[in-house]
TrEMBL record:
UniProt-listed InterPro entries: AhpD-like, AhpD_core, CMD-like
Cited PANTHER family: 4-CARBOXYMUCONOLACTONE DECARBOXYLASE (PTHR33930:SF8), ALKYL HYDROPEROXIDE REDUCTASE AHPD (PTHR33930)
Gene3D superfamilies: AhpD-like (1.20.1290.10)
Source organism superkingdom: Archaea
Protein name: Carboxymuconolactone decarboxylase family protein
SUPFAM superfamilies: AhpD-like
Positions of the Carboxymuconolactone decarboxylase-like domain: 59-129
Pfam family, one: CMD
Regions annotated as coiled coil: none
Amino acid sequence: MVEFDLDFQEAIRELEEKGAKTTAADWLARVEEEYGTAPLIYKKLEDCPEALISHLLYKNAVNQMSSLEPRVIELISLAVGAALRCDHCTAYHMQVAKKMGIPKEEILEAVLVAGLLANSSVLANAYRVIPDAAKEPCGAGCSIAGVPAKKEE
């Protein structure tokens, strides 16, 4: 995780001195230098330096005020990227987690928890969408909204 070691006022002074475009490019270069690459969203936001700077300042503020250890934040970031099925986020956060020395077993566990929650989300959504699904008995003759399940022959 890139920490800018700047408080908000220092960041604003840097922004005023260098301008948005140069500041955004410098901060993006720091991310790339530390991790060998930058997340796709950062690269896309570079075209709108104000958005990239705002995002990085927000991310930095959240990380600085957090009582969670950086490794926990990174595992959460990895899990969320995986659960949202964002290949770029998952690959980036996996790379960062490895660079932080997080063992492969913990990385896999975070991805497994993400999969579990993503699956639960699909099921929970389906039960909200399908009327009275929770009231119907399920089994070999399970039906949804009065339509019997197809029997295997």
